[in-house]
Amino acid sequence: MADDVIISLTQEGPVPDENWDHFVEDILRDSTHRMLGIGIGSINVHSRQRRKLVQAMHDKRIAAVLGSSVARGIATALGWMGLKIRGFGWNDIDTAFEYLGSEHIDIEAGVGLVSQLLARSGAPTLEELLKDT
Description:
The protein is α/β, with parallel strands linked by helices. It is about 50% helix and about 25% strand. A four-stranded parallel beta sheet has the order 1-2-3-4, sandwiched between helices.
């Protein structure tokens, strides 16, 4: 969490319910107005987790940075259903931060936070993810 923005990284595989529930609690905080969701690989969330997430995000502005064009299409479809969400590829991470429009985190600081999160989690670097696009 950085000011009014949650930056979330989900990597390939299932997400334990306990972790998911903590994530949703953070989204539900009154201080959370925006979310940058980063997805790497095939993420497995079950229907209860998806339902909780959609309910928590209903009044938030969301940018989803995803490597898969299919996943970005799903984000677009969720936007058609009323969520304030847009999907972005790795090469558009700057645009994702512009879309979020936080007064507290500029693009450079946001990209720096993403790089730190990727490093702490053992995920590929931004440079590596950009090569794969």
